[in-house]
Amino acid sequence: MKIATYNVNGVNGRLPVLLRWLELAQPDIVCLQELKAPDERFPDGPIRDLGYDAAWHGQKAWNGVAILSRIGEIHETRRGLPGDTRDSHSRYIEAAVGGVLVGCLYLPNGNPRPGPKFDYKLDWFARLHAHMATLVGLDAPVVIAGDYNVMPTERDVYAPERWLDDALFAPDVRKAYARLLGQGWIDALRHLHPDATIYTFWKYLRHAFERDAGLRIDHLLLNPVAARRLTAADVDREPRRWKKTSDHAPVWIELAETPARRRRSGR
């Protein structure tokens, strides 16, 4: 089973890119972020034409998350992160698909820091921490995937000294991510490629992609049951080369049907 996460940076504006990638990569389950579209404008038809079922939680102008599946029905289990009934942002959707519980998230950016946006990010992270604590011990594979808007370590950012004041690299945010791992979640990419330089996002400015001046902010976290089935994980950099593309690249993992022996790689 191939599961991917992809911040599309506008699902309608980047629809040709998304459809091209789906047709080429053929992931079984996909988590999309930053739809930038209300529910009624989600491009359900073209996506279904490629054989994908879809569940989405949209929002006008920004945010928005979706789960796609080509291996069976999507049984939605949650829409919105629990813990704050006043939160109107469309940043979390969760569903059971093909025997896996999949959570798709778009964690707040948090800039400028300090300020109310950074406070909201830390509060959202705390709510995520509480919710994921209820999922990590399930006797079923769980994958929480998406744009976490955090570079966990200096290895995950080009020129880390330039990001010291940014909310994506703030000590409190990195500690919050580390607390998730402390619950027992496995960072799939870093687990299989512990020493590699891996980025998932490159700014559009100053030829950042061509210089490989990027960030690793898109993550797939696996509970222990899912981690025992993990056989591969990587970044599909090719769509980032295409015209009118997102500033993120898709990130994917492969899960075996049963716990599998795997080989670590330094890429």
UniProtKB/TrEMBL annotation:
Swiss-Prot/TrEMBL cofactor(s): Mg(2+)
Q: State the UniProt keywords alphabetically.
A: Hydrolase, Magnesium, Metal-binding
PROSITE patterns the record matches: AP_NUCLEASE_F1_1, AP_NUCLEASE_F1_4
Q: Which domain of life is it from?
A: Bacteria
One Pfam family hit = Exo_endo_phos
What sort of enzyme, by top EC class, is this? hydrolase
Is Metal-binding among this UniProt entry's keywords? yes
What CDD domains would the database entry show?
ExoIII-like_AP-endo
Reported EC number(s) for this entry are 3.1.11.2
Residues in domain Endonuclease/exonuclease/phosphatase?
Answer: 4-248
GO MF entries: double-stranded DNA 3'-5' DNA exonuclease activity
PANTHER family, per database record: EXODEOXYRIBONUCLEASE III (PTHR43250:SF1)
Which family is this sequence assigned to? Belongs to the DNA repair enzymes AP/ExoA family.
User: What NCBIfam families does its record include?
Assistant: exoDNase_III (TIGR00195), xth (TIGR00633)
Protein name per Swiss-Prot or TrEMBL:
Exodeoxyribonuclease III
> Where does this protein come from, organism-wise?
Sphingomonas colocasiae
